[in-house]
Amino acid sequence: MPVNPPSSPESTTGNRGDSLIEYPSKFPIKVMGNRVDGLVHAITLIAKAFDPEFDASTIELRESKGGKYLGITITITATSREQLDELYRTLSTHPMVKVVL
Predict the structure, then answer these.
(1) Is 25 exposed, middle or buried (0-12, 13-18, 19+ CB in 10 A)?
(2) pLDDT, greater one: 95 or 5
(3) Are the C-beta atoms of 7 and 56 separated by less than 8 Å?
């Protein structure tokens, strides 16, 4: 009598694969850097490069207590793990950026 093999994790997770994120989905990313002219513009250009439908009006800004740093939260539409990995790499290596979360 044939026995059916147990279902594999891939067959039970749909489009997620090994990710906990379902694509596409809205995905917030926090970027921190020195509060300097051009920082928000630079982050906006990067966000638009990875998500052509990115809406800059959704950007959230928060200054540090001393005013030296600026936290920028962008919310992009994530379409794949590869997209997110490359976006994090691009943001992290930008000279104006200190931290990406």
Answers:
(1) exposed
(2) 95
(3) no
Domain count, the chain: 1
- What pLDDT does residue 20 have? 86
pLDDT tens readout for residues 63-79:
999 999 999 999 999 99
| Residue 37's CATH number | 3.30.70.260
Quick check: pTM over 0.85?
A: no
Would 33 be classed as within a structural domain? yes
- Cα distances from 62 to residues 31, 76, 80, 89, 97, in angstroms, run 10, 18, 28, 22, 15
